[in-house]
Amino acid sequence: MKNPLAHNPWARNPWFETVAEAQRRARKRLPKSVYSALLAGSEKDVTVSDNVAAFSEIGFAPHVVGLADDRDLATTVLGMPLSFPVLISPTGVQAVHPDGEVAVARAAAARGIGMGLSSFASKPIEEVVAVNPQTLFQLYWMGTRDEMLRHMRRAQEAGAKGLVLTLDWSFSMGRDWGSPAIPEQMDRAAMIKFGPEGIMRPRWLLEYAKRGELPDLTTPNLMPPDGPAPTFFGAYGQWMSSALPTWDDIAWVRSQWDGPLVLKGVVRVDDARRAAAVGVDAISVSNHGGNNLDSTPASIRALPAIVDAVGDRVEILLDGGIRRGGDVVKALALGARAVMIGRAYLWGLAANGQAGVENVLDVLRSGVDSAVMGLGKNSVHALTADDVVVPPGFRRDLGVGAGAGVVSVAD
Ligand SMILES: Cc1cc2nc3c(=O)[nH]c(=O)nc-3n(C[C@H](O)[C@H](O)[C@H](O)COP(=O)(O)O)c2cc1C
């Protein structure tokens, strides 16, 4: 009998050619509440939309003759060699795929790039570093200094190559599109409630069934010495009730972390100057992918002013809205050393596990290569602002107004 799947292109070829297609497949594959949690924009989605739309406003200025046959895409970030200028941005990927961050880390290692691991991740840092030694551990400011120190020590002992301190969260809860319901843990009550959603997504369910597991909604990297790993919401509650950090606290983290330190979530020039003065090694110009304070401008709009202010002292990364290799090249042309990606790899992971993340990285890499070629460059390091067309009024120079640039620590 003829194979009924013979004409189904997915059955034979799970490869996808764009991040947009990875997103479509993720939407079809994931239970609705899990997919919505990945979209996750806050309030009216102004920032989520601007993160993506702003890249479309930037044009290229390509050459046509004398293009380079060989193009070098490799770079380094914080001393880590990357085969092209992309890093995995830390995200908690509970319930997307049973292999979670380990699959992402394997894919990143297979493609020669680094991995950012969230403190809210579903896999322990030891397992992630084992498959990708180029791992940066991400922390929020939560708990006491002693607890922060314990998390840092564990990451250091596990072999993390750097610490990412994410500071741009303001606990903005409301979403005009309605937040997805997420259970505290996968117990009997949750299975009854969410069972129908899972049954509607048999391929997602099958991945868990194959391993005899249920989605793990705990945060093993925040495990106390004397108890089990907190649930995602338990950890979130602790974070919400923690005192907010001061610049002295950031200086304290700097003094305690013996290795590269990244401050993630900076969009203002005055904050970037303070971060440089405190001694961070890198900044990620970021608005948390639009999940946080809605109406913060696209991170790519804030990038040039920060590069101008501190680009000679700290490495500047950018995250938010990267959906294609051309976006990476635009960010590089405006002064970023590399970018970090969030949703793009989460969609790849949902669509096809580790292979799906590798697929996303291949799509981005080939897009970077095409753009570098078209722009007549032989290396990502040769990109300049002259390669792109930026419309008037595109930039948002935040934190340069009267009094905004005052820095108390000598820089
Ligand atoms: C579902 C989801 C979870 C995230 N979790 C974290 C996190 O735990 N820590 C963190 O620093 N950033 C987190 N982020 C933000 C990402 O690291 C990154 O800044 C953002 O996704 C970049 O935007 P993009 O998704 O448009 O690429 C999360 C983002 C998403 C979409």
TrEMBL record:
Cofactor(s) named in the record: FMN
Family: Belongs to the FMN-dependent alpha-hydroxy acid dehydrogenase family.
CDD domains: alpha_hydroxyacid_oxid_FMN (cd02809)
Swiss-Prot/TrEMBL keywords: Flavoprotein, FMN, Oxidoreductase
Active site location: H288 (proton acceptor)
Name of the featured protein: FMN-dependent (S)-2-hydroxy-acid oxidase
Domain FMN hydroxy acid dehydrogenase: 11-393
Family matches, as PROSITE patterns: FMN_HYDROXY_ACID_DH_2 (PS51349)
Record has Methyltransferase as a keyword: no
InterPro entries per UniProt: Aldolase_TIM, Alpha-hydoxy_acid_DH_FMN, FMN-dep_DH, FMN_HAD, MftD
Cited NCBIfam families: actino_HemFlav (TIGR03966)
Keyword Heme: no
